[in-house]
């Protein structure tokens, strides 16, 4: 049995924080896991910036409601899910993902959740488990699945490298240079063909 594990932001949806940065006019919020491999550090940085500007969960959700999946992503997901099992492994949050999942036809996602105060300000994160993408891939392997993984950022590399086949998708030149052994794709058709060949 195979199961495909996909990152969400940058692979099938736009980067939520980059979109929110554009709408809010706060350039510091453009930082993502492509720029900062330490996720805890990145989230603390983001929450500090949001507090400084008096912005909370509602403002972020208002922006997310306007975001669509990347062009071609739903068709890619539909074709992939007609062929094999697929799960999205993301460091995003339930509170962010739901509107995007609806537009994608409700694929399965394993992600995290947010902690907010009575005013809706972000005060912390509840991580599903430590090293969530790698832990999940190893868990799936322990119950008889062979995993195939694709992602675009530093926090995807563990699950990609631990899988029987792993691919980079629309990643940075730096990550491509650091991991030349990984095939890197820019187009959904190419990624789909590579995944199907690995099944």
Describe the structure in your own words.
The protein has 199 residues and is an alpha/beta fold. It has a domain at 2-12 and 70-112 and 128-198: HAD superfamily/HAD-like (Rossmann fold). 44% of the residues lie in helices and 21% in strands. It has a seven-stranded mixed sheet with strand order 4-3-2-1-5-6-7, with helices on both faces. Helix 7 (157-162) links the parallel strand 5 and strand 6 (165-169).
Key phrases:
globular; alpha/beta; 199 residues; single chain; 44% helix; Rossmann fold
In whole angstroms, the N-to-C terminal distance is 9 Å
Kindly identify the CATH topology of the domain at 2-12 and 70-112 and 128-198: Rossmann fold
Element order: H for helix, E for strand: EHHHHEHEEHEHEHEH
Identify low-pLDDT runs: none
Strand order of the largest sheet: 4-3-2-1-5-6-7
Number of beta-strand segments? 7
% residues in beta strands: 15-25%
Largest sheet: 7 strands, mixed
**Structural class of the helices, strands and pairings?**
alpha/beta
The CATH class assignment of the domain at 2-12 and 70-112 and 128-198 is Alpha Beta
Alpha plus pi helix count: 9
Cα gyration radius (Å): 16 Å
Q: Let me know the CATH homologous superfamily of the domain at 2-12 and 70-112 and 128-198.
A: HAD superfamily/HAD-like
Overall pLDDT, averaged? 95
Instruction: Write down the overall geometry.
Output: globular
By CATH, the architecture of the domain at 2-12 and 70-112 and 128-198 is named 3-Layer(aba) Sandwich
Please give the share of residues in helix: 40-55%
